[in-house]
Amino acid sequence: MLGAAAVDSAYVPAMARSRAVRNTDPLAVPWGQPATATAVFAVAALSVGPAPWTVAAPYGPARWAWLLHLSLFCTLFSFFLQMWAARATPPSWVSLLLGTQLL
Question: For the chain, where are the alpha helices, taking DSSP H only?
Fold first, then answer.
């Protein structure tokens, strides 16, 4: 956890100074982070156990609805709010808040 907090405390000020991030649409990053994580973990899951699509094959409509709800409203919306708040807050505060959320 300490390592993740240290990386996060360096990452946030670096992103705050980057012109590319400042000019990015606040909706693009919340979609990109989970999409990248999904791709990485789907590939990693192949070496650990059954493929994710074989596990998800028997899911019914109710389970897919809950999965969609959790991914869109709980994950993407919170990432969007976090990005919006990070732009409106000084980088040192954001780094402190994100670093302490790991504890």
Answer: 2-17, 19-22, 28-46, 52-56, 61-69, 77-87, 91-100
Q: Is the pLDDT score of 10 beyond 80?
A: no
The pLDDT score that the predictor gives to residue 65 is 93
The answer to whether the CB of 26 falls within 8 A of the CB of 82 is no
As a whole number of angstroms, the distance between CA 50 and CA 52 comes to 6
Question: Which of 19-23, 52-56, 62-66 has the weakest average pLDDT?
Answer: 19-23
Q: Using CA atoms, how far apart are residues 13 and 9, in angstroms rounded to an integer? A: 7
Two tokens, residue 61 = 């409509």
